[in-house]
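ugh ok so i messed up the first submission bc i forgot one of the chains. this is the corrected input, ALL of the components this time, i swear. 872 residues overall. if the numbers dont match what u have on ur side tell me asap before i send this to the collaborators (the ones from the other lab, u know who)
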Amino acid sequence: MQKIGVGLVGFGTIGTGVARILLGKREEIFRRTGQRIELLKICDKDITTDRGIDLPEGILTDNLSEITDNPEISIVIELIGGLEPARTFVLKFLEAGKNVVTANKALLANHGPELFDAARRRGRTIAFEASVCGGIPILSSIATSLQANRIESINAIVNGTSNFILSRMESDGADYADAVCQAQNLGYAEANPSMDVDGTDAVQKLTILAQLAFGAVASWKEIPRTGIDSVSAVDIEFAKKLGKRIRLLATASRGENGLALKVSPTLIPESAPLAKVRDAFNAVEIIGDFVGPVFYQGLGAGERPTASAVCSDVIDTAVGRTALTFGAVRMWAADRPALPLLPSSEIVGGAYLRMTVRDQPGVVAEIAGILGRHNISIASMLQAEAAEQSDSACLIILTHPAPEGALGTAVEELDCLEFNLAKTVRLAVGAPDTAV
Amino acid sequence: MQKIGVGLVGFGTIGTGVARILLGKREEIFRRTGQRIELLKICDKDITTDRGIDLPEGILTDNLSEITDNPEISIVIELIGGLEPARTFVLKFLEAGKNVVTANKALLANHGPELFDAARRRGRTIAFEASVCGGIPILSSIATSLQANRIESINAIVNGTSNFILSRMESDGADYADAVCQAQNLGYAEANPSMDVDGTDAVQKLTILAQLAFGAVASWKEIPRTGIDSVSAVDIEFAKKLGKRIRLLATASRGENGLALKVSPTLIPESAPLAKVRDAFNAVEIIGDFVGPVFYQGLGAGERPTASAVCSDVIDTAVGRTALTFGAVRMWAADRPALPLLPSSEIVGGAYLRMTVRDQPGVVAEIAGILGRHNISIASMLQAEAAEQSDSACLIILTHPAPEGALGTAVEELDCLEFNLAKTVRLAVGAPDTAV
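and heres the new structure output, hopefully the right one now
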């Protein structure tokens, strides 16, 4: 019986969960897979903090070469996060002939092509299920279970922090800042949650999904992105009045002229499964040409769900499944057939516009005129008193689907209107067919 | 480039979908997997009916030996359904050295041990994703993606016909017979839907899930089973009043003394994801010790979703993934560690009892007395006028969790009461923690 040695780099929250599984379930995994998977070394800068887990003597090290130079270790798990030194380390692991498992979406969204090419050149693999939606097996579903399908669209809640904040605003009527505080107090948001609430985390995960499902090569910085930091309690209320809920959606949609990618708080019908995803849950709705709509929901972050995904990748790598899938899917390979990206200005979708305007005659006519000149047609309009000033009004406009470019220019013009008292808030409106 | 020849046996609805994918997407599948998968023969008794699909000349045959004796065919898809001749055919395919892909849950639930042993003896594989929940990749999730978890429980809607009927009763207030008619008219139920509505289909799928997820060897005939044919419009109404929905759930739950398996119409909180599964959709909620709750929803039947699952299995078999998973999971192997089954009398759960009784003094006391003697404690009770007779009343009792054995005996005694005008209807009440 051959042993498969594993090294773990980065002993934080998720690393602790991974160690719990690989050490605590060693016999169970052997019975279930026929493989002796042995966690041999854990490397971290900090080897003194107690993580509340019993470790075999000598397993912990702050010397990376104890992993890279260890011939018994064939799989290395990268859990340090961020770009550097993670990128350099992963290249080193591949160079040393190790297969890599990672949960690092930022790393893949920024350096995917380089890392996967390095792996292919070395005849090694990178497994990354945990990088998107933690415990939801969405990447393996796309890569294998749905492989007979042409994927038509993906609508996903991939950032648990944002979803927690939005669902607290929805259930408690909390304003944005209060909900962020709640999320921080409960451990769902970090002290500085900017990468979560400004949509960066979501757009990086979307980059990975777009490459896997559509072969699309997207730079995350170029994908249109709005975070939940633009959503106010009043938007949640208006959405409710319209029979809708607001969720931060990462969407990928195949069209005749290319793939449309976008991250935005999006108004979706309250009956849609995505509208019912609460708290820190993640969810993904995929539509395939044969399978139709498939919906997944689960915990997208945290020690245990993420460790579950990491360890599944470790086992897949140990038994050889990863090599087969890795070889077939060819992530970011230069010759992989790619669906072209639709330029962001041409992405078509409905918009929700909230304006705070001086309450005076002619306002609506002027706004409607600007929208009309950009061929944006109004689906409905609501007016309410603005809370702050009695001589101002809050205007909500829902548009029919229009190109992102036209909407952007129109909103710029709206923001220059003399009677406009605040920057226009623009959210997306989900396609009506977004419903499992 | 080696070609992988495929034979298809059974050219009905699903077979047509499979042919559409394997013939129509040949190049796409090659690009995506690097494998030349060629559908070489389709065998059916009926080779004259037009299925609305263009077939290469000579592909259709009514002679099975053109598949079994064809050395170019290494994978055979069995889509004839039922027990015989499917069982004999599958044994023949394995005997001839073919790998098998099947969507036949009845076959596996009845002859799983024999077929999988035959496959192992021959060094061949059986892939069966399509046998449970059609397009939802639930079996591969359990076998691979969730493999680092100890599965704690599965709650699943696995019969689309039953779900369609229940959700029509719920939305239209239709009575059972009307809803069955609607389902038949819309093609969601067969002319004789008895295997769907009496829970047989669900319990057979549960047998497969229980073996895969828990190693449990269950005979489907011994699993406690109630179908939706016992549900009336009045039950749907009462459930609504209690803030609940009724769904036909197949449940598997790990306890200290063994695995509890059950199929029953079940009252679940209206906020639970399973309660929101409408029409002919299937859904599965799995709780793993690390991943927590994961929820899947998709189409469980029909030409295209089922063909999607079948073809994914064909590709997995062609690229070698099936062999790895098959070898690790060892379905129904005699030496596979098995969780023992809890005797059905010891399965504990809450019950919903609906009695139609003569409206006379002492009735409630006598009923409560019987339940009390069996240590069944009443959680709540509702009384309503029975529609048919003015001197009768309808009594709804929700019990706290109690053993199946005690509940069964108590209901037998209730049914013998002189003032009891109809057989007591007994449904299950879901555990309060059943909620993603």
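quick check: The first strand of chain A starts at residue 3 and ends at 9. that seems consistent at least. Residues 344-429 of chain A form a domain with the Alpha-Beta Plaits fold (CATH 3.30.70.260).
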